[in-house]
Amino acid sequence: MPRPKRAQPDAPLPLPGPLEEGNFSRLGMFSVQERIPSTFTSWTRVFEGDNASVSFTCTSPAELGGVPHGIDAEFMQTLINLYIEGGAPANGEVNVGMREALERSGCDTSGHYCALLRESLQRMRGALYTANNAWVDSGRRRKVSTTFNLLSDLTILERGSSDENLNTTRIVARFPPEIIANIRERYTRHLDFRLLANLKRSSSRILYRLLEGRRYNADDLEPTRLERFTVGLQAWAEELKLVTREASKIRSLLEPLHGELIENGFLTSATFEGRGARAAVTYVYALPKSAFDSVELERLRRAEAVLKSYGFNRYWIERHAGAHSLEAILEADAAFREVAAHAANPIRNRTGYFTKILQQAAVFESPPPSAAAAPARSIPAAKPQPDDDPNALFEALPRKQQIEEVLNALAYPLVVFEIPAVHVARLRLALLGSQTTPLAFKRQMLELMRRMDALGARAFVAEIVALNDLAADAAEGIAPTTIEVSARVRKR
């Protein structure tokens, strides 16, 4: 088989989706569990080799939180994508702002996630991986023995506290030679960014990568014809780097992940069989070997053309194309053009304003029928999770962020109806002091948006003024428990 063409130094690699280094899923670099005890400081996998001992080991100090796990995989994927987008330089360096690193990993920029990112980076710098005839060296076309850290060097440059200077804090990291060489040799495989965007748990995303990795030949990453496979539960727990080895606990950990992968169309079924030492799980794949068929590629090209015209970079093109249908993107484009045509002044931040329209459109998308997402018989229905409910997710945000989310809904009518910014400023101040939950105001705002065209400019502004009054009353402790804006407007 001919060797793949070597990437030219500093040449950008084309991306129809995020890329993963070829050894990561085959060897399982991260524990699937989102949380582990700090005492889980090592694991070892032993493989069947060709007349040679084959093993892969990870050790990490307890003070770093144990072995890499959960959200660490998301941060590592972000760094790899940034490295490739930067042309895969020979020195293996990635230089990124902390805010961008968090946003590109799908995290908010709160202090909690800032701390998680710092801990994760230190863990990836400190965890030591030892491969014994296990690491595929793409350049030499064989498995080699080596020892490395996920990050060979790490510097966090900041001014003052990270919370106050998130925009000025930068991460400078370097990959080890083992990872650099394979990426530059294009020993990588594509990931389905639509699926990754729809999976809610980092554990589900790690499991997806591991399951998808089994469908590729280890030597050249050519796709195989694997449609299903069965694995013993104990061996699978070892491969997933689970802390427990109790069958009942393994099942309880995996069932919600299976449910999410089935619901999102990656698996047809995941069936547990047998008991005790004979317990096993059988996976049946639903997706074709390539998620990028001709129809999908055409959809992506059209979506990419629209998003590029608004100045989005590669990451945000992939993220928006994965999270929104082509129809939603085209409708947002049409809405933007309509607003721009009638706006009193040119829209300066085209990228930001288009994003607001796209997000606003997502608010009104009808949820799919419950029957369409019915779980397969092979696994019990997953218990509802708190983050499955958009309102619960909203209420889990810090109060100030909830208020900003409410006010963000006004971006569209601000331009269309030229609403004075003073109303928005007053509403923000009143909500900050209010005892009424921002969720109640959010519901009222969404109702206003639905009736915006019917109301017209004058009535819509009157509704906003009424919201100001209600928020001010709530700040003084006299707001009604149910917001009745329309009734108040009628009294004016």
Which helices and strands appear, and what pairs or packs with what?
Layout: E1 19-21, H1 22-27, E2 42-47, E3 54-59, H2 72-85, E4 93-97, H3 98-104, H4 111-126, E5 128-137, E6 142-149, E7 153-157, E8 170-174, H5 177-184, E9 188-190, H6 193-198, H7 202-213, E10 228-232, H8 233-239, H9 247-263, E11 267-273, E12 280-285, H10 294-309, H11 314-323, H12 326-342, H13 350-363, H14 390-395, H15 399-408, H16 411-416, H17 421-433, H18 438-450, H19 452-475, H20 485-491
Give a quick precis of the structure:
With 492 residues, the chain is α+β, with helices and mostly antiparallel strands. It has helices spanning 22-27, 72-85, 98-104, 111-126, 177-184, 193-198, 202-213, 233-239, 247-263, 294-309, 314-323, 326-342, 350-363, 390-395, 399-408, 411-416, 421-433, 438-450, 452-475, 485-491; strands at 19-21, 42-47, 54-59, 93-97, 128-137, 142-149, 153-157, 170-174, 188-190, 228-232, 267-273, 280-285.
Report on this structure.
With 492 residues, this protein is of the alpha+beta class. The protein has three domains: 19-285, no CATH class; 294-373; 386-491, no CATH class. The chain is built from 20 helices and twelve strands. It has helices at 22-27, 72-85, 98-104, 111-126, 177-184, 193-198, 202-213, 233-239, 247-263, 294-309, 314-323, 326-342, 350-363, 390-395, 399-408, 411-416, 421-433, 438-450, 452-475, 485-491, and strands spanning 19-21, 42-47, 54-59, 93-97, 128-137, 142-149, 153-157, 170-174, 188-190, 228-232, 267-273, 280-285. The strands form four sheets. A four-stranded antiparallel β-sheet has the order 2-3-5-6. A three-stranded antiparallel β-sheet has the order 4-8-7. Strand 5 and strand 6 (142-149) form a beta hairpin. The longest helix is centred in the C-terminal third of the chain and has 24 residues, at 452-475. It starts with 18 loop residues before the first strand and ends with a helix.
